[in-house]
């Protein structure tokens, strides 16, 4: 705990562009957590290089993501917003934890299998040990809770296993994290394949709404969104495309699916798609304006980067020094 608050850790990769799904399903839900938790939100750029990145583009995307955190409403005084690569403790602890992680555990990681299939020409050791770095991210700040989706639960479980194994050998060193169960984030699906979630890595540009999409682009994507031949705005499992559009309209307007059905009863898909697009444009406009203002204020963003890195390093070093002493590394001469 820090100052009487439990600690929460989360982060996003500095690859691709954030989507409406990232915003509604995660980022928007982070905004009030600082009242209850001491929150660390990382731009996880170390994780990003398991796939080859163009250096200048990675730096740009990392800064853009941190700026988006603030534009979305995360206060960098109440929350620690920082670059993972600016805290060397992530890598140092990751190496130590590698020595307490078994090959069989890593072999069972489904995300490694999925990513290895997608990047068969670059199946590197970092991709294999990715869950250990993720464990270091969490344990470094003694996180009590971690917001996770279904696709990350396996990584949190191995983090818990590693922490418990280390504690069994060396005593009460790490806080064993629990999944954060809070308000369920909106489940925003692909506009072109509504059976899967909206993804920033989708190869189809019409499948995702990106937070920086201009109004014309947003309207065009919704007009092309997959629906069906029933021509009824109904919230039914057999109409996944329409269900997805209803969910999007609901989170943007605050209306329930039942209210949305009544509003568009007897109206065609064309009217409905236009209304959904306009609702999204309305929600994203203030975020985009705030982002543009922040992007012009280089000195302010630089100060956030510097101050938050110092804060993150302060807490990370506390854990790291304790771990180094436990495993028998020589003390540093000051």
Keywords:
334 residues; Rossmann fold; Tyrosyl-Transfer RNA Synthetase; 2 domains; 3-stranded parallel beta sheet; two-stranded parallel ribbon; 14 helices; 5 strands
Brief write-up:
The protein is mainly alpha-helical and 334 residues long. Helices cover 53% and strands 7% of the residues. The mean pLDDT is 93.
Rounded to the nearest angstrom, the radius of gyration is: 21 Å
One letter per element, helices H and strands E, the order comes to EHEHHEHHHHHEHEHHHHH
CA-CA gap between termini: 27 Å
What structural category arises from helix and sheet content? mainly alpha
> With helices defined by DSSP (H or I, 4 residues minimum), what is the helix count?
14
Low-pLDDT ranges: none
Largest sheet: 3 strands, parallel
Report on this model:
This protein has helices at 20-30, 45-48, 55-71, 89-98, 103-107, 110-118, 125-128, 130-139, 153-170, 215-223, 240-253, 257-263, 269-296, 298-327, and strands at 6-12, 37-43, 79-83, 145-147, 178-180. With 334 residues, it is mainly alpha-helical. The strands form 2 sheets. A 3-stranded parallel sheet has the order 1-2-3. Strands 4-5 form a two-stranded parallel ribbon.
């Amino acid at each position: 705990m820090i100052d009487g608050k439990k600690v929460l850790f989360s982060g996003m990769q500095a690859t691709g562009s954030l989507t409406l799904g990232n915003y509604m399903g995660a980022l928007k839900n982070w905004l009030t957590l600082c009242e209850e938790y001491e929150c660390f939100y990382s731009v996880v750029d170390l994780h990003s290089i398991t796939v080859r990145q163009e250096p200048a583009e990675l730096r740009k995307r990392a800064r853009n993501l941190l700026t988006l955190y603030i534009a979305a409403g995360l206060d960098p005084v109440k929350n620690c917003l920082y670059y993972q690569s600016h805290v060397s403790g992530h890598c140092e602890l990751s190496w130590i934890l590698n020595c307490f992680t078994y090959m069989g555990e890593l072999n069972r990681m489904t995300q490694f299998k999925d990513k290895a299939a997608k990047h068969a020409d670059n199946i590197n050791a970092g991709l294999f040990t990715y869950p250990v770095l993720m464990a270091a991210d969490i344990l470094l700040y003694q996180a009590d809770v971690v917001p996770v989706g279904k696709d990350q639960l396996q990584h949190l479980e191995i983090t818990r296993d590693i922490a418990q194994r280390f504690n069994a050998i060396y005593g009460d060193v790490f806080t064993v994290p629990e999944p954060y169960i809070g308000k369920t984030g909106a489940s925003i699906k692909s506009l072109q394949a509504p059976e899967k979630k909206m993804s920033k890595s989708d190869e189809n540009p019409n499948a995702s709404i990106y937070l920086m999409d201009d109004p014309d682009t947003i309207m065009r994507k919704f007009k092309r969104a997959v629906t069906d031949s029933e021509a009824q705005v109904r919230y039914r499992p057999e109409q996944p495309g329409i269900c997805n559009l209803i969910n999007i309209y609901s989170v943007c307007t605050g209306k329930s699916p039942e209210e949305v059905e009544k509003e568009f009863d007897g109206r065609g898909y064309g009217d409905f798609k236009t209304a959904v697009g306009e609702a999204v444009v309305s929600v994203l406009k203030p975020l985009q304006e705030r982002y543009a203002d922040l992007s012009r204020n280089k000195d302010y963003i630089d100060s956030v980067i510097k101050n938050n890195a110092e804060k993150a390093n302060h807490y990370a070093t506390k854990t790291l020094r304790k771990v180094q002493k436990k495993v028998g590394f020589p003390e540093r001469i000051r």
